[in-house]
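Input record, target 12 of the design panel.
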């Protein structure tokens, strides 16, 4: 066997082995499974893991923007007319968040932590000075007091007298700082004189700067990667007690800071948020890319805040059968000390049209008012997010309060916030390197198949060359004498020509 023949056989055998092995590994997803198992072991909430430090203190900057609805015609609304508002903002704060008092519990199977947040004002990203800019808006303390006494004619009459003597109206004008971080309300001070447990200071973000929402206990994800970051208890509770059904009171999913790796487009993502006093869910919307990182966009569908008629599961969120609002709004008074506070998306995005039509100056837009999460599906890392929510007050006629007798029942917007984050450049580079390694390892069988295909081409070329050379050799052995003299040579004897039989007879 010639050297060329040996080469052909070696190339052919190697080609066959590479193709068989590569296709087999690819079909069996062996390397992808190995890489996924590696990710499941690395992405866990235990000391020393790849994600633990960034989970305790997330590196990307978080910004909190506040937009207020300044009421331009409060007297018209009080007289029964249509209110008009003008959006003012943003007032932007840098939000610093970290996990405090982190400790392993349940024999290391879970981790306990407090989510602490603090805020620093950013003048360059804001429209004005919160200490100087005034906003005319709903007098939330007054409405909270009126709502608490509305079932007692005597107490309602007393509150009406207090409001008149203190000149506490249905609307108030305060600075942005006061509305956010708190001011002492004269009506609350009067109420506290008879009920010492009543807080005399009111602010939409009162006591939320440098504070936390209580103790969370999370699953580490070691036993099951799907449990990574999942809440086990909040403030020692496995479920809430504000609502009237098990579904409504359930504490499910994460707190919004961690999501399990290997996300699927078909799954629902559950997030428990203390601000809304409930769990919400998000569904896949579309593929996006952030700083070169592929991501799935998840967003709350309309069904999350749908009416009980549209989504029967939401019936448990009705305060009472008579206090059940329409699609797109959620009355959260059970967890707001009875205050008639209503939550929604900004400008009543995804809500019934009647809520938008009742207020002049609102224009819901998906781009500016949608809440969404962009998650890398391989690692579950948040690469971009916008949490947008609106605070409203339910304003209606209250017997015994003369100033409310002409009011049309209205869910009145006060303020909405936009809490946003986008992965920083350093973290993005680290994540891209991790994804590159993951893709290379997962697709290694394709590399083997590629080498097999290359060797197959080489094998075909060598076979063609060998066949061509064999044909040339056969042609060289068939020849005729040049002339008749060569047939008889007196010195060498008669020459026998290798001439085809037909030519000799000729």
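The sequence produced for target 12 reads:
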């Amino acid at each position: 066997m010639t050297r060329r023949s040996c080469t052909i056989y070696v190339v052919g055998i190697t080609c066959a082995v590479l193709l068989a092995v590569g296709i087999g590994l690819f079909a069996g997803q062996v390397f992808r499974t190995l890489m996924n198992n590696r990710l499941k072991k690395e992405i866990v909430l235990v000391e020393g893991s790849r994600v633990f430090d960034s989970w305790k203190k997330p590196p990307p900057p978080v910004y909190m923007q506040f937009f207020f609805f300044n009421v331009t015609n409060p007297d018209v609304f009080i007289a029964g007319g249509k209110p008009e508002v003008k959006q003012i903002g943003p007032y932007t704060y840098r939000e610093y968040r970290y996990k405090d008092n982190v400790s392993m519990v349940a024999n290391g199977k879970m981790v306990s932590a407090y989510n602490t947040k603090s805020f620093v004002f950013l003048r360059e990203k804001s429209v004005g000075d919160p200490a100087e800019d005034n906003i005319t808006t709903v007098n939330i303390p007054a409405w909270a007091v009126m709502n608490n006494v509305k079932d007692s004619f005597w107490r309602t009459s007393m509150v009406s007298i207090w409001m008149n003597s203190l000149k506490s109206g249905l609307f108030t004008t305060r600075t942005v700082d006061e509305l956010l971080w708190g001011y002492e309300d004269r009506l609350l001070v009067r109420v506290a004189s008879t009920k010492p447990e009543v807080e005399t200071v009111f602010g939409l973000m009162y006591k939320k700067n440098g504070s936390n929402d209580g103790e969370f206990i999370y699953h580490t994800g070691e036993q099951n990667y799907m449990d990574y970051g999942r809440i086990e208890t909040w403030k020692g509770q496995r479920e809430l007690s504000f609502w009237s059904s098990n579904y409504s009171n359930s504490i499910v999913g994460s707190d919004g800071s961690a999501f399990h790796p290997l996300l699927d487009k078909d799954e629902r993502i559950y997030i428990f948020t203390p601000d809304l006093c409930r769990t919400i869910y998000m569904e896949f919307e579309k593929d996006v890319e952030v700083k070169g990182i592929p991501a799935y966009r998840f967003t709350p569908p309309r069904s999350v805040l749908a009416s009980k008629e549209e989504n029967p599961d939401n019936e448990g969120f009705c305060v009472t059968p008579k206090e059940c609002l329409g699609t797109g709004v959620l009355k959260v008074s059970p967890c707001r000390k009875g205050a008639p506070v209503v939550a929604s998306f900004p400008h009543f995005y995804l809500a019934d049209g009647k809520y938008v039509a009742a207020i002049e100056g609102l224009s819901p837009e998906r781009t500016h008012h949608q809440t969404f999460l962009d998650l890398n599906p391989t690692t579950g890392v948040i690469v971009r997010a916008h949490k947008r929510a609106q605070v409203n007050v339910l304003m209606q006629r209250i017997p015994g309060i003369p100033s409310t007798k002409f009011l049309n029942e209205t869910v009145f917007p006060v303020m909405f916030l936009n809490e946003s984050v986008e992965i920083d450049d350093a973290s993005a580079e680290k994540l891209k390197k991790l994804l590159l390694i993951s893709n290379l390892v997962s697709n290694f069988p394709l590399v083997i198949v590629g080498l097999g295909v290359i060797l197959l081409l080489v094998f075909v070329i060598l076979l063609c060359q060998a066949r061509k050379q064999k044909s040339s050799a056969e042609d060289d052995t068939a020849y005729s004498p040049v002339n008749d003299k060569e047939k008889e040579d007196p010195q060498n004897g008669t020459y026998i020509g290798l001439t085809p039989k037909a030519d000799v007879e000729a």
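Residues 60-423 form one domain.
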